[in-house]
Amino acid sequence: MPETRTPGQFPNGARIMDYFLGGSENLPVDRTAAEGAVKLLPGAPLGTRSNRRFLARAVRAAGRRGIGQFLDLGSGIPAVEATHEVAPGARVVYVDNDPVVEDIARRLLAGAPRGTTAYVHADVRDAQAVLSAPAVKEVLDFSQPVAVLFGAVLHFVTDAGDPYGLVEQYKQPLAPGSLVVVTHSSNDYVSAPVQAATDRLYGTFRIELASRTRAQITRFVDTEGWEVLKPGVVSVNEWETEQERASDADYRTSREDAAGFAAVAVKS
Q1: Spatial contact of 231 and 123, defined as CB atoms under 8 Å apart
Q2: Global confidence as pTM
Q3: Is residue 2 classed exposed, middle or buried when 0-12, 13-18 and 19+ CB atoms within 10 A define those classes?
Q4: Separate counts of helices (H) and strands (E) for the chain
Q5: Rg of the chain over all Cα atoms, to the nearest angstrom
Q6: Whole-number mean pLDDT of the chain?
Q7: How far apart are CA 71 and CA 96, in angstroms?
Q8: What's the CA dihedral at 108, 113, 114, 117 to 10 degrees?
């Protein structure tokens, strides 16, 4: 989510995530930076993959509820297990403010039928700008249920940015039956050395990470008029549904490697 006007000769956070996910939208400089990050945080690739697998399960769970519209906030590169791939035929809008993501996303989505999949270059922290964007209005019908995805993005909104008020701005226009999907960094299961390494890594990119407790993360979803779906607010690698268990790969990911919580809530 943070603005990163990164020339091609420098590593880019979104491309590094793509590398961790096994994607092809990354450069040698990103792979070198990624390997350096792994030396500090060996569990980073596992945590990244676990987060993406959770989002895929949540998207499929939304589909089973009849939801075919998704607003993917702070999406990163829409490549490996991207929302429109997990939910073919759905209407999807990706939002990010990284110009590197914009260039790649517009290329990847160029062949999508008009009115079904779009990219909006905007800062997630400006909810009104996002919600009023022409592409959002063209693709999504807010009179019907929409799933709003906050995948690993809210921990980039510091307390000074009023993260709870921000989420409420996105919730307000949603129709009953809509979903809010959240993953969020937390140090609840993280050792002090790993926490220190995380701080050093993000400090290298001059990114402030607002890690929050499970109770603080629960506040995003457990609000009046919303019901948190089973299994509740749990470690990212442990969220599953009755129809779809977490994969063996997720169970091999420790809570410390997952380094955060996941939750899905429905509007009543």
Answers
A1: no
A2: 0.94
A3: middle
A4: 12, 8
A5: 17
A6: 94
A7: 11
A8: -50
Tokens at 182, concatenated: 């959240």
Token output for 267? 């509007």
Residue 215 has pLDDT above 50, yes or no: yes
| Separation of alpha carbons 204 and 87, rounded Å | 36
Domain ranges of the chain: 43-267
Residues 12 and 231: their CA atoms lie apart, in Å, by 34
**Residue type, position 6, single letter:** T
pLDDT in tens, 79-112: 999 999 999 999 999 999 999 999 999 999 998 8
CA separation for the pair 192, 199 (Å, rounded): 11
Under the banding of pLDDT at 50, 70 and 90, the label for residue 49 is very high
Q: State the Cα–Cα distance between residues 233 and 265, nearest whole angstrom.
A: 10
Which segment of 20-29, 107-116, 216-225 scores lowest on mean pLDDT? 107-116
Q: In CATH, what class is 43-267? A: alpha beta
What is the DSSP code (8-state) at residue 236?
G
pLDDT of 2 reads: 45
Cα→Cα distances 237→56, 87, 151, 167, 234, Å? 12, 21, 14, 23, 8
Quick one: pLDDT band at residue 246, thresholds 50, 70, 90? confident
* Token output for 228: 């948190």
Q: Which residues contact 256 (CB under 8 A, 6 or more apart)?
A: 43, 189, 190, 191, 194
For residue 85, give both structure tokens. 């791939």
Question: How many residues appear in the chain?
Answer: 268
HSE-CB at 234 with a 13 A cutoff on CA atoms is 16
